[in-house]
Amino acid sequence: MTSTQPRADRFSRELAELKIPDPAAGRSALWLRVGAAGMILGPVLGVIAYLMSHNTSDPLVQRDAIVIGLIGISVAIVGAALYLRHSITGFLRFWMARQSYELSLRAGADTNGED
User: Fold this and answer.
1) Alpha-carbon distance 55 to 86, whole Å?
2) Could you count the other beta carbons within 10 Å of the beta carbon of residue 39?
3) CB contact at 8 A, 76 and 43
4) Could you list the residue ranges that cross the membrane (predicted)?
5) What is the sign of the dihedral through the CA atoms of 93, 94, 95 and 98?
6) Residues with Cβ < 8 Å from 10, sequence gap 6 or more?
7) What is the pLDDT of residues 10-26, one digit of tens each?
């Protein structure tokens, strides 16, 4: 059985040939956390706006609460989009590496079968 190191080197070399930038894992994890925080912060802003609008009869404060509620909705949507985008990116990166490995195995089996 072959060692995994040459396979990893070959994969890195193939990625370099494809000119695919090496992903910064720390940056992706940061955006994943920012997205999760946005999904949590959005409903919190909504609850704050609800409590703010129901504790006053002043229309100006109620309108401010509507704006805060809309900002909460926007933050939740953007947070969900960020979280989903970076979650799917991680999965697709793994899927691409697995497909590349399986194709190289299949290509190796095809050339060995022709001997």
Assistant:
1) 39
2) 19
3) yes
4) 30-53, 65-84
5) positive
6) 104
7) 777 776 676 655 566 67
Q: Which residue ranges of the chain lie beneath pLDDT 50?
A: 1, 115
Question: How remote is the C-alpha of 10 from its chain's centroid?
Answer: 27
- Count how many residues are written for the chain: 115
- Sequence spans of domains, the chain: 25-113
Q: What is the DSSP string of 16-59?
A: HHHTPPPP-HHHHHHHHHHHHHHHHHHHHHHHHHHHHHHT---H
In the structure encoding, which two tokens stand for residue 112, read together? 């060995």
Q: How far apart are the first and last CA of the chain?
A: 20
Evaluate whether 35 touches 90 at the Cβ level (below 8 Å).
Answer: no
Dist. CA 39–CA 87, nearest whole Å: 14
| Nearest alpha-carbon partner for 100 in 17, 41, 2 | 17
